[in-house]
Design a protein that fits this description.
The complex is a heterodimer of chains A (about 280) and B (about 475).
Chain A lengths: L1 H16 L16 H38 L15 H21 L1 H8 L14 E6 L2 E6 L20 E4 L1 E5 L4 E7 L4 E5 L4 E5 L5 E5 L5 E7 L11 E7 L1 H15 L21
Parallel strand pairs in A: 1-5, 4-10
Antiparallel strand pairs in A: 1-2, 2-3, 5-8, 6-7, 6-9, 9-10
Chain B lengths: L1 H17 L16 H15 E2 L2 E2 L12 E10 L2 E9 L8 E6 L10 E7 L4 E4 L12 E4 L3 H13 L1 H4 L38 H10 L14 H32 L1 H9 L4 H13 L2 H21 L16 H12 L6 H4 L28 E2 L5 E2 L15 H10 L15 H13 L23 H4 L2
The chains are: A alpha+beta (about 280), B alpha+beta (about 475).
Chain lengths: ~280, ~475
């Protein structure tokens, strides 16, 4: 009796405790993006269907066993009924699950399309990608377009430009609006995984893959590699910072300054982001 | 049947608990000395640095191994000490040990004193128990002795050891699979530094490598480490570098007389092994060898201290010159000039295919010709001059990073320091040229100007599917 109780209790508390989804981000257990919420809804819908099916079949099984046990009582003359080969039954349990599966397949189509099909991406992503994210063993290298003379980010070009800005393991994006990145890999397959936003996309050598996401709350999110890419796979952790547009522009300005730092005191951006590590 | 199964489970469980052949980590030592001398190196290095599980903090070393260092300002209030913190590297918190290093040092074997609480406002340490001797004003104390190093060792084991090895010898289990070899710290040499020619690395150089990684190599970025964590790793790496260099120096000192090879030659020339060993024993007994070792380690320590001074860091005398077509052209002329001879290694088009890459070169240590043509670094690895057209800058892409490479060279590699040969303007011209090289095909020599909106290149978004 011990194990069934443990199994039951675990199944019962798991969703409440957030064991199925990461909940360290700024939005807690809730998905941190509108699309993520819809993906969660799909997940829960499928969970409800499978739960109902599971409980239904278990109850039916119990009922049959109970009835069957009664039939073995002494003096019972009832004959067994062999259902094997019953055409009607076969049709029923083929058509019912098929309908359920077909329903799921149709129901999820627009979420899938919005997630993966470029033509269905939100219109904001047509403005172009905000960054090129290149995975490599074992880090994320990010290339942002620089700021133009008007103080706005330039369009991201396919080839590196002299004005481009670079970071590593530090992806910044504007909050509250869909943004797109171009995903690449320098070596093997990796997977761009923003668990709190429910975004996961493999990076495939030789392909430039557009990925869009929308963080619904400012803050720091986890960016992981979700494809076992080698011995250092566990190190491939970065952060994704979602922030309001002014802060995002400020971040790019700071990056421009520190990337152009010429080492002469008094020049702006004397703040090399790393020099502090040893002194604090 | 059942007992067989139980036995199987037991065996599997036992091996799971015990692991397969687990051994304690050990610092490696160079080999090649005769056993007696090898033993001397081992004991003398171990005396100063200990073993991975029992690190010794040699107080001469210019590292920051403790959580904090302080002096006693008022010790009259029993177990409440008013202190003046002189160095603070980690939080001061309950449970840390407080140890006296100068002043009224309690006798060996007295009970350790632990911290109950620390009040930041009044700089007061509340101790669990009063120290054995009443503290005096001016006593030097350390709080959390060796805490940074122990933490550093754990983090090093988690993040660095599998490539860089237990002793920082660059021989971790994954190292054989990497084709840019992990750094062997034991020469005390680090390649990408912000310090002047011939000087060792500054702490911030190591911090930069840990934070940003080295593109083009297997060194990844560890940006998400907390400040205290990366500081602990840096101190531990410095500790390993100093330990390794001490061992290296001792080894070199004894190598000429007592390597297995030279002993064999000496025996051939008529000396007996016994006599050589007893001669060595006398030299050790007289303290002659210890003294020689001390001279070398003192120099090493002084070098590390020098490199941490603010004056050690390269600061250009003039601001960066505007990267216009003229500057880039001047840079290119300098690059091609016979005086600097950049092309010998980096090639005329900057592809890293200069004549030196297929010439027979001399080994910098032995002075003999290398067996295979090409360039080598101080660790004996074959080296490719950087392909400057990839836009990949191992030591950083800021103008100051490139300036430092030109000014002071790349330590431990054939890249020389050009600082003395060039004017400030010339240095910046070269920096501008090198930064322009990856984009040269765009508009050759047009310089770094932000592309105007009219630039007829299509944004990525509309070119991808």
């Amino acid at each position: 009796m011990f194990w069934p109780i443990v199994a039951f209790v675990l199944c019962w508390v798991a969703p409440d405790m957030g064991w199925w989804f990461p909940f360290t981000g700024p939005t807690g257990m809730k998905a941190a993006s509108p699309l993520g919420e819809r993906i969660d809804d799909l997940f829960y819908m499928i969970l409800y269907i499978t739960t109902a099916t599971f409980i239904g079949t278990q109850v039916a099984l119990g009922y049959v066993l109970f009835k069957g046990a009664a039939a073995t009582d002494e003096g019972n003359t009832e004959k067994a009924w062999y259902s094997h080969g019953s055409h009607n039954l076969e049709v029923i349990w083929t058509i019912v699950p098929a309908c359920v599966l077909l329903f799921i397949a149709l129901y999820q189509m627009d979420v899938w399309a919005e997630y993966r099909v470029k033509d269905s991406f939100p219109s904001e992503t047509r403005r172009g990608a905000i960054a090129e994210v290149t995975a490599r063993q074992f880090e994320w290298r990010i290339r942002y377009p620089g700021l133009g003379p008007d103080g706005k980010p330039l369009p991201l070009m396919p080839k590196p430009q002299p004005t481009d800005l670079y970071t590593v393991n530090d992806l910044h994006a504007t909050v509250g609006m869909p943004v797109m990145i171009i995903l690449q890999t320098q070596d093997v397959q990796h997977s761009f995984f923003l668990p709190e936003l429910r975004i996961k996309q493999d990076a495939v050598p030789g392909l430039d893959i557009p990925v869009w996401f929308e963080a619904s709350k400012s803050g720091e999110y986890t960016l992981l590699c979700a494809e076992l890419c080698g011995w250092g796979h566990y190190k491939m952790k970065a952060r994704m910072v979602a922030e309001p547009e002014e802060q995002y522009i400020e971040f790019l300005q700071k990056l421009t300054e520190s990337q152009n730092y010429d080492g002469v005191p008094g020049t702006p951006a004397a703040e090399a982001p790393v020099a502090t590590a040893a002194t604090e | 049947m059942r007992s067989k199964f139980a036995a199987l489970v037991l065996v599997a469980g036992a091996s799971f608990v015990c692991g397969c052949g687990r051994t304690d980590p050990e610092f490696s030592y160079r080999e090649g000395l005769s056993p007696r001398m090898q033993e001397y190196v081992r004991t003398s290095v171990e005396q100063k640095f200990g073993t991975p599980h029992k690190i010794r903090v040699w107080d001469k070393l210019p590292i920051q191994p403790h959580a904090a260092v302080a002096t006693v300002a008022d010790g009259s209030k029993d177990s409440n000490l008013v202190i003046q913190v002189s160095e603070s590297h980690r939080d001061i918190r309950k449970g840390q040990e407080v140890a006296w290093v100068a002043g009224t040092v309690p006798p060996r074997g007295s009970a350790p004193v632990f911290l109950e609480a620390f009040d930041k406002e009044s700089n007061t340490l509340a101790l669990v128990s009063a120290p054995a001797l009443a503290p005096q004003v001016g006593d030097k104390i350390v709080i959390g002795p060796g805490e940074t190093l122990t933490h550093g060792r754990l983090l090093y084991a988690e993040h660095c050891q599998h490539c860089h090895g237990v002793a920082g010898d660059g021989k971790g289990p994954t190292a054989p699979y990497l084709n840019v070899r992990p750094r062997d710290y034991r020469k005390g040499l680090f390649k990408f530094t912000s310090t002047k020619e011939g000087l060792k690395a500054h702490r911030s150089d190591l911090a930069k490598v840990i934070e940003d990684g080295i593109p083009g190599t297997y060194m990844p970025s560890f940006k998400l480490l907390k400040t205290a964590e990366s500081h602990a790793i840096i101190e531990y790496v410095l500790f390993l570098a100093m330990r390794g260099e001490t061992e290296f120096q001792t080894y070199n000192l004894l190598g000429s007389d007592y390597s297995e090879e030279s002993i064999a030659t000496r025996v051939k020339e008529g000396e007996t092994t016994d006599k050589i060993v007893s001669e060595f024993a006398t030299r050790v007994k007289d303290g002659e060898i210890d003294e020689e070792v001390a001279i070398r380690t003192d120099k090493m320590i002084a070098d590390w201290i020098t490199a941490q001074e603010p004056e050690a860091v390269i600061v250009p005398k003039e601001k960066r010159y505007l990267s216009d077509a003229d500057s880039i052209k001047r840079g290119r002329d300098l690059y091609l000039s016979a005086n600097l001879n950049c092309v010998a290694c980096h090639g005329e088009s900057g592809l890293g295919d200069g004549a030196q890459t297929y010439s027979v070169t001399k080994n910098t240590e032995t002075g003999k010709d290398n067996t295979e043509p090409g360039l080598y670094d101080a660790w004996g690895n074959k080296l490719k001059p950087r392909n400057l057209r990839l836009g990949m800058y191992r030591g950083g892409r800021r103008p100051i990073d490139l300036y430092a490479r030109i000014e002071a060279g790349i330590k431990g590699t054939p890249m020389p320091a050009f600082g003395a040969k060039l004017t400030e303007q010339q240095k910046w011209d070269i920096v501008n040229y090198v930064l322009e090289l990856p984009h040269e095909q765009r508009i050759p020599g047009a310089g770094i100007a932000p592309p105007s909106p009219a630039t007829p290149t299509t944004p990525v978004a509309s070119t991808t599917h």
